[in-house]
Amino acid sequence: MSTTLVKTRFGMVEGRREGRVSIWRGIPYAAPPLNSRRFRPPQEPESWAGVREAKEFGPASLQGESPSMIFLSDSPVHKNEDCLYLNIWSPGADDKRRPVMVWIHGGSFMYGSGSSHLYDGKSFAEQGDVVIVTLNYRLGVFGFLHLSDIGDEEYRGSGNCGLLDQVAALKWVKENIEGFGGDPNNITIFGESAGAVSVGNLLSMPMAKGLFQKAILQSGTARCKVALATATKMTEQLLSELQADKQNLTALQTIPAEKILKAIEIFPRRALGPVGDGIIISEQPEKVLYEGFAKDIPVLVGTNADENALFSYFDPAWKQMDEHKIKLFFEQTFGSSWTNISQYFAQEEALTKASYEDAMTHYVFTYPAIYFSEGQARHGAPVWMYRFDYGSRALGGELKAFHGLEIPFVWNTLLNPATEKITGKDADRYRLAELMHRAWIAFAHQGDPNNTTLPNWPLYDEENRATMLFNTNNEVINDPNGQKRLSWKEIFA
């Protein structure tokens, strides 16, 4: 048997050998979610006779366009409702049972794919002797339209079809990855942004127990993005916009997908995502984890120093804001939380774009990551924390250590010329990429990121709060920005 011909439970697949790595692209892990399967949990793919070619990426989920995702080079051209495919990179289809890493892409649950050049698994396979899997899952309205309170039992959990797709992919990996040279009992899930939120939610889901053994969360932790009451209200608004009878949801099966995609423009961008339905995920998945549900899982978690710089850079509203408008923007963003959060800025003469970026970075990313790490540590779970401080030299350095910048460093994809517009061209970035890449590989192999290329990286605990700061000089600092941490702890309390 060749190194690219593999028997799965559903049929034979044939990939390509590229250098020292075998690659399979576009393998279906679930049936196409079309017609009667639209807005319903994923079903197993049909078996096929003969050999199925797995040499081209499958289509990404239907989605709009986002300036920030275009900048991050994760704005797919090939999109379709029929999107439930995965891709595999491996040193070879043999019996070596290597560690497996399953990547869940980000994009606010509205954008992105598993086929971006940033997620090229060749380096992991070549340098780390790891099997890499990337996948697509349903996004936006197709992945997170909450019909459970309106439709019949077949729509149960529909507000989290995107997460159920991820579970289906993990089940496929566990059942089939051994044929691709992977170990089904040594699986690490990792993701960034919405992908990290997905990882956090998977950690909190009983149905995902046993499908993975380790987890990495980059710039995101467990949470339901949409509260149940809000999700139901949005569904009713969308059905009205589509002139669909909520007493007869079968009509949703035949409405053109483009019409549905157009209809969600009545909602703010990034409005859809995991629903705290109490069926698939808890109304408070972060609380489930804080109480120890995933205490048996080693975790690597971290954030970037200037997460929100990416979003404000691509928000045209900032070009027209004076001091009064900035204050209103703060109030609109934080809503009922603004009374508490405003105390954080009590000593400042005026609110600015910089103070907004700082607040959003800590509110959305930094403090939730600390809270999650504290919960894991309290239950004795091994957890390592990092902060990515390397400032991009692109765009005049204006974006600093922005959201998503760490991705090409983790994946070691800096040799792709397209990454220069994200990272800049400075030569010191190659050394940092090698060190981060090695840490992620070590974690996949042994459940611990420590290796000979980095300073000793202690476990995170509430006494020392050891945090690896990734930059041109990597170092471990205890409780970095401790005063800010205490301020945000008080705000969240």
Keywords:
493 residues, Rossmann fold, three-stranded mixed β-sheet, single chain, eleven-stranded mixed β-sheet, alpha/beta, 16 helices, 14 strands
Strand and helix map with partners:
Layout: E1 5-8, E2 11-14, E3 16-18, E4 21-28, E5 51-53, H1 67-71, E6 85-90, E7 98-104, H2 122-128, E8 131-135, H3 140-144, H4 161-176, E9 182-192, H5 194-204, E10 214-218, H6 228-242, H7 257-263, H8 285-290, E11 299-304, H9 309-313, H10 323-334, H11 338-341, H12 353-378, E12 383-388, H13 407-411, H14 420-423, H15 428-446, E13 466-470, E14 475-478, H16 482-492
Parallel strand pairs: 2-5, 7-8, 7-9, 9-10, 10-11, 11-12, 12-13
Antiparallel strand pairs: 1-2, 3-4, 4-6, 6-8, 13-14
Tell me the Rg in angstroms: 22 Å
**What would CATH call the class?**
Alpha Beta
Number of helices: 16
Report strand order across the widest sheet: 3-4-6-8-7-9-10-11-12-13-14
CATH architecture: 3-Layer(aba) Sandwich
Describe the main β-sheet briefly.
11 strands, mixed
Mean pLDDT: 95
Enzyme class: hydrolase
Keywords: Hydrolase
Protein name: Carboxylic ester hydrolase
GO molecular function: cholinesterase activity
Describe the structure concisely.
The chain is 32% helix and 16% strand.
Give your account of this protein's structure.
- InterPro entries: AB_hydrolase_fold, CarbesteraseB, Carboxylesterase_B_AS, Carboxylesterase_B_CS, Cholinesterase, Lipase_GDXG_HIS_AS, Type-B_Carboxylest/Lipase.
- It is an enzyme of class 3 (hydrolase).
- Pfam families: COesterase (PF00135).
- It is built from 16 helices and 14 strands.
- The strands form two sheets. An eleven-stranded mixed beta sheet has the order 3-4-6-8-7-9-10-11-12-13-14, sandwiched between helices.
- A hairpin with a 4-residue loop joins strand 13 and strand 14.
- The longest helix has 26 residues, at 353-378.
- The model has no long low-confidence stretch (mean pLDDT 95).
- By secondary structure, it is of the alpha/beta class.
- The chain has one domain (5-492): Alpha/Beta hydrolase fold, catalytic domain (Rossmann fold).
- The protein is globular, with a radius of gyration of 22 Å.
- Helices cover 32% and strands 16% of the residues.
